[in-house]
Amino acid sequence: MTRRSLLLVTLMVAVSFSTAALLVPTSASAQYREFSGRIDMVKKNKFIVDNRQGDKVSFVLVPETEVSGEKKSVKKLKKGDWVTVSWKFVDKPRKAYKVVVLPPREDDD
């Protein structure tokens, strides 16, 4: 094998490994995101949160959903509750893994 072909093979192997690293999900790609706002709608296993700045985001409740803060149960969530929801960016649809129910705000309308 010539020096030039050895260099080419080495380069191809390096590119293969770097491409594979991009395709394999890592723990960094599954980091939690947070969205805070007031619950606008609650249905059986879904709810919508309005951040009052023009963004409304829907979340699906899953068996792993943990509720903490002012309420401790998914069944107690209701329209008007202020919450912070933790979800993973990779989820489609967004799954609510953690819901922290915040104290009521004085400026509620």
Topology:
Elements: H1 3-23, E1 32-42, E2 46-50, E3 56-69, E4 82-88, E5 95-102
Parallel strand pairs: 3-5
Antiparallel strand pairs: 1-2, 1-4, 2-3, 4-5
Description of the structure:
The protein is an alpha+beta fold and 109 residues long. The chain has a domain of 72 residues: Nucleic acid-binding proteins (OB fold (Dihydrolipoamide Acetyltransferase, E2P)). 19% of the residues lie in helices and 41% in strands. It has one helix and five strands; from the N terminus they run H-E-E-E-E-E. The protein has a five-stranded mixed beta barrel. A hairpin with a 5-residue loop joins strand 2 and strand 3. The longest helix is centred in the first third of the chain and has 21 residues. The radius of gyration is 22 Å and the shape is elongated. The termini are far apart.
